[in-house]
Structure prediction request, 353 residues.
Amino acid sequence: MKRAKATPPPSNQIAISSSNDDRNKGLIRTVQRTSNLEAPIISLAGAHSGEILSCRFDPTGQNIAACSTDRSISLWRTYAPNTNYGLLSSHARAPILDLQWSLFSPLIYSVSADHTLCMTDVTTGQRVRKIRAHREIINTLDRTIAGSGTELLATGSDDGTVKIWEGGDEASKQPVATFEIGCPVTAVCWNKEGNAVYIGAIDNEVHIYDLRKGAETATLTGHTNTPTSLALSPNGSYLLSPSFSSQTIVWDVRPFAYNPSRIHRVLHGAPAGFENTLLHGAWSKDDGGKRVAVGGADRMVCIWDVESGKILYKLPGHKGTVTSVDFHPKEPIILTGSKDGTMLLGEIEAGLA
Prediction:
């Protein structure tokens, strides 16, 4: 009697060991898919000839932007066919150190080592504004929607100042406010309401400046070395700050914190290395911020459970320091950018919101 042909395995099975012959498949493992990515891990490579310093999803999660020491910004689709549909290469005369997608217009904001803040229209690829924003290298950038409905930007520089700017292509070339920190600034991050800025600097402190008062209202102390980035949790209650000491602190920034030191968790596992690279951390969004991630000089990405402080994942795959991580706004997907000039999209287990 003729046996019926076996049905081919479904697409979510991976042959871990096989010879070239399709019939001699070895060990088969079923992978539980958690997102709409084409594959559980996707490499985005070939656009940059230099190190990637920052990479971010846009607010919809459909697009990705990355900036590099090769002075260009690459634009990618998150989902298949993952095309690199744009390379903006004439925007700066020096490495581009950080970028952000606008929250409500088709703009990308970027800051670079030539002391400029640029605004680029992603639909045309044209630069719509270039502002000589600082006297020194600009390390960091963040944006928010203020109470009045206008987009505000904060830029932090080696010249020891943080400046606040209006966003949008009609914006003024003069800052709305300037805060003198007194030493080089490595990180800025807006609070949830958009009326105060958290500022990391090389004095190892996180300074909180109130936009309405125009003055410093508090500092967070606890780092033994410079904070490399600042990221606010989705609910606005906690602040993530990795540092050159390889210690990552989660601060409690609620108005009335239970702990007077405001240190909520201290996380270990992402080595900062000796290159003094500004490593960008991120909060998960699909589960409301239960997890945080920071890349390391060990070429891995560390993902922790915030409440327990336990390491959930150490994700390999890069050939250089992982400088930047971002979580997808809607799905359990992590984006990582590295000094090897490539990005990886990885699917992780879905969080429980």
